[in-house]
Amino acid sequence: MSSFADLRRMMVDCQLRTYDVTDRAVLAAAGTVPREAFLPAELSDLAYLDRQEALPGTSRALAAPMVTARMIQMLDLEPGEEVLEFGGGSGYGAALMAEMGAKATLLEPDEAALALARAAFAQPGIAAAELVGSLSADRSFDAVLVSGACETPPEALFAHVRPGGRLIAVLGLGRAARVVLYRKTGDSLSGRPVFDAAAPALPEFRKAEAFAF
User: Fold this and answer.
1) By the 8 A CB rule, do 136 and 108 touch?
2) Does domain 4-205 have CATH number 3.30.450.70?
3) pTM above 0.90, yes or no
4) What residue segments make up the domains of the chain, in order of their start?
5) What digits encode the pLDDT tens for the residues 177-201?
6) Which of 164, 95, 90 is nearest to 124 (CA)?
């Protein structure tokens, strides 16, 4: 049986590199962060499969590794930037960004998923991140990773993006979904599609539902 280190290396070479993930910092982080730590122990053998994985007992799932990595690549992060992952469940995306030298925060309103994140980040060798269930209205970030699919634009997060900052999210469900990269100029954000991808649905951004942090 292959070790987790071998599986991680295969994920980088056979999934990420073939999905146009070329940024060295992203590849290095994906090759270092133990994705198995972000799944319950009984599911750890599934950590490096090319698919999303539901987190039992929560409303969340980890997106496929290649989707998370490519979305982070599109944020074009610099070390020291303050970054936010929303809806990341156990926080694998936040861990990758922290490993890249960013000051990462995971905002996870699902309490059961946040508990999984706390357990994951308590394991040795994982770069530290702030783990919270809510944000004050005045918190802002250089970049925001929305780790799930949104039926409607995640407007509740727009105010947390600093001028000149970026936000990336999957808009739409299933085969109609596209990853959209937003950039903030002044007080307004403009978005453009950057690639097609599917991700776990976020109930906070379903149509005809209101959600407040």
Assistant:
1) no
2) no
3) yes
4) 4-205
5) 999 999 999 888 999 999 999 999 9
6) 95
